[in-house]
Amino acid sequence: QVHLVESGGGLVQPGGSLRLSCAASGNIGAILAMGWSRQAPGTQREPVARIIVEGDTNSEYADSVKGRFTISRDNTENTVYLQMNNLNPEDTAHYYCYADLYGWLKVWGQGTLVNVSK
């Protein structure tokens, strides 16, 4: 199995930046891709960004974060990062890291809160 631990959330003012980290442990070789989703109160969880963990750094972004968020990986540390710039209050949510295993299984982290407020 794979275990994910997120960190880096917190309170930030509009226009500010945060970097989230997601460290993976366990059966690392089973991971095909990792990514981030978010869920604001009263809404459904929505995808934010995704990256393939081996080979070419193919990444995908939700339209709402393109140009502001960047997902990256450090395979030596088994860690994926989400750099979030120019944050606005609509970005306030719990952010969840996930790993896609074997092409059919998704494992989730416990989540970290990002609060964009004055």
Structural class: mainly beta
Q: Which blocks of ≥5 consecutive residues have pLDDT under 50?
A: none
Helicity level, as a percent range?
A: under 10%
Q: Output the helix-strand order.
A: EEEEEEEEEEE
> Cα-atom Rg, whole angstroms?
14 Å
Protein model, in words:
It contains no helices and 11 strands. Strand 4 and strand 5 form a beta hairpin. The chain is globular. Strands 2, 4, 5, 6, 9, 10 and 11 form a 7-stranded mixed beta sheet that branches. A 4-stranded antiparallel beta sheet has the order 1-3-8-7, with no helix packed on it. The protein is an all-beta fold and 118 residues long. 0% of the residues lie in helices and 57% in strands.
Tag the structure with descriptive keywords.
single chain, 118 residues, mainly beta, seven-stranded mixed sheet, four-stranded antiparallel sheet, 0% helix, globular
Strand and helix layout:
Elements: E1 2-7, E2 10-12, E3 18-26, E4 31-39, E5 46-52, E6 59-61, E7 69-74, E8 79-84, E9 93-101, E10 105-108, E11 112-116
Parallel strand pairs: 2-11
Antiparallel strand pairs: 1-3, 3-8, 4-5, 4-9, 5-6, 7-8, 9-10, 9-11
Sum this structure up briefly.
The protein is mostly beta strands. The protein has strands spanning 2-7, 10-12, 18-26, 31-39, 46-52, 59-61, 69-74, 79-84, 93-101, 105-108, 112-116. The strands form two sheets. Strands 2, 4, 5, 6, 9, 10 and 11 form a seven-stranded mixed beta sheet that branches. It has a four-stranded antiparallel beta sheet with strand order 1-3-8-7, with no helix packed on it.
